[in-house]
Amino acid sequence: xxxxxxxxxxxxxxxxxxxxxxxxxxxxxxxxxxxxxxxxxxxxxxxxxxxxxxxxxxxxxxxxxxxxxxxxxxxxxxxxxxxxxxxxxxxxxxxxxxxxxxxxxxxxxxxxxxxxxxxxxxxxxxxxxxxxxxxxxxxxxxxxxxxxxxxxxxxxxxxxxxxxxxxxxxxxxxxxxxxxxxxxxxxxxxxxxxxxxxxxxxxxxxxxxxxxxxxxxxxxxxxxxxxxxxxxxxxxxxxxxxxxxxxxxxxxxxxxxxxxxxxxxxxxxxxxxxxxxxxxxxxxxxxxxxxx
Length: 292
Hints:
Blueprint: E1 4-8, E2 12-16, E3 19-23, H1 25-35, E4 40-47, H2 50-62, E5 66-71, E6 76-82, E7 88-92, H3 105-112, E8 114-119, H4 127-140, E9 147-151, H5 161-170, E10 173-177, H6 178-188, H7 195-205, E11 210-214, E12 220-224, E13 227-231, H8 244-257, H9 262-277, H10 288-291
Parallel strand pairs: 1-4, 1-8, 2-6, 4-5, 8-9, 9-10, 10-11
Antiparallel strand pairs: 2-3, 6-7, 11-12, 12-13
Helix pairs in contact: 1-8, 3-4, 8-9
């Protein structure tokens, strides 16, 4: 396969009181990209354990291409505890398989065939996976036409200014939500400026092709040099919001790769994300009117 779209980083299980669900933004992204008819692949690592085997079986059942290495660490899990007010509390286990994604010859070959890649900050909390991600991005970046998407995804305390700054330098598309933008602005010294002005600053400072800002029920924006696209968030009956942001990114990138303009890609991304919110879980089958 050439012109592959890659989701790179964590593959894990969310362990909830009612049972476990497969998780990880890179897999969600890659799965939804594949539903738009593009070749996609998820890159991660698992342990030599039943949870790891179950991840592979799950991806195989979904027809999701993967380059997942087995390493001598346990498969990643996130313990999810629901408090009395119904608010979930997360404990992301450390020093697990996806913290230790090795750089291999297979991965280098994949990088040479990659047209777009999406990565986040969480999978960079450990130096091993961080180094692998950076080496992969260096190869993809050799072609200026390739899309390198940094979906910030701040989780717990697993990020710092150095990782965020390096990631923004390496990407040409930044995706961030309004809460993350406030956090990043504090770290980078942009307080007291409205959200849109902060986006223009980041777009220019890091010479980005695009900056995507999602604001929950308050809509979303796509900033490109000299232009901004806004889309309101559709009102839908929400089943859960798990994976909605990943489906937004997938639909947007797939549309751009298919030659659609930014407003068209933005509209489809919003519709796709809204649909995923009406479904349980992060990887529902999308209706044909979205993927056609």
